[in-house]
Amino acid sequence: MEHGRKAAVLSLIIAVSASLLLSGCFHTHEWAEATCTEPRRCTGCEETEGEPLGHDWQVATCTKPRTCKRCGETEGEPLGHDWLDATCTEPQTCARCGVTEGKPLGHSPADPVDEDIVDALCTEDGSYREVVYCSVCGEELSSEDKTLKALGHTTKNGFCERCGEEIHDKISGEGNAFHEDIAVGGGLFRVRFTNEGRGPFNVWVKYGDGTRLQAVESWGTYDGAYFLYSTGPYSFEIESSGKWTYKITRLENTDESSFKGTGSAVTDIFTAPSGEWRFRHTSNGDFKVWIYTNKGRELLVNERGACDLLVPVSIPSGSTCVLVLRVDGSWIVETG
Length: 336
Known about the structure:
Helix content is 7%, strand content 45%. The protein has a four-stranded antiparallel sheet with strand order 15-22-17-20, with no helix packed on it. The chain has a four-stranded antiparallel sheet with strand order 16-21-18-19, with no helix packed on it. The radius of gyration is 55 Å and the shape is rod-shaped. By secondary structure, the protein is mainly beta. Among the domains are: 113-148, no CATH class; 165-250, Jelly Rolls; 254-336, Jelly Rolls (Sandwich). It has one helix at 2-23; strands spanning 31-32, 40-42, 48-49, 57-58, 66-68, 74-75, 83-84, 92-94, 100-101, 113-118, 126-133, 140-148, 155-156, 159-160, 171-174, 177-182, 189-195, 200-206, 212-219, 222-228, 234-239, 243-250, 258-262, 265-266, 275-281, 286-293, 296-304, 307-313, 322-327, 330-334. Strand 2 (40-42) and strand 3 form a beta hairpin. It has one helix and 30 strands.
């Protein structure tokens, strides 16, 4: 039995020895991790196992070559910067990494240009923008609003040559005069006469149909209006010892229901109800008032001296009105 035990131990020793001989190593391995270029290796016996990991390359940049993220080994050359030219607002810039170099070029202002132009009219201002752009990049650098002054009318024979509006300049003269072929367009008009002479001042109006009426009969200074009740052309015959003027204006529509003034006058076109109208006059001279409606002319007041009257007035249905006053002094008319 003792002999059998010895035989078993000897067999175990032979088996272990054979195993050690076959493995080539007679200790426990202590493995170092594999690297990019080396497999796992025993630090005691240098035995290896497995394969190298291989490089984990990070792509090259403008300033660094291709580099292994694991071991730091490099390969090749840096790419170098891909420069974009400097602009007005940006320095030279690398298209790849964004790094800059130098300074922006700065803008180069071009000559101003006019934009958003609204043309001036005879009576209305125009406008435009004066804009400065960069001659290199086209960016808007500045903008200033400008005004175009109204052109004014260019009057010929009572009409503006530019816009066609009926415009009558103030006409002036001195002493006796005769003006003919004074043209007006459609509508109703007044003519205002002034006189600076000290003697008689008389004006006759001759209408296109040959009718001749005295519009002014006065002495000394004068400032008053006369109604041109029909279409022209007109002729004005003026008798004066001094300087005088006249100006024709179109009657406009008005919402006014009462009127006041001094001297002879012609109101604008208005509407008013029938009823008692009040007429007041404050001087010692004449006070005559006519009304023009679609039924013609009617004398409403014919007084001399100061007065305060209530006068019944009948207005045709749908008619507009114009009052014509030949007055010395101040007056008031209240229609409602």
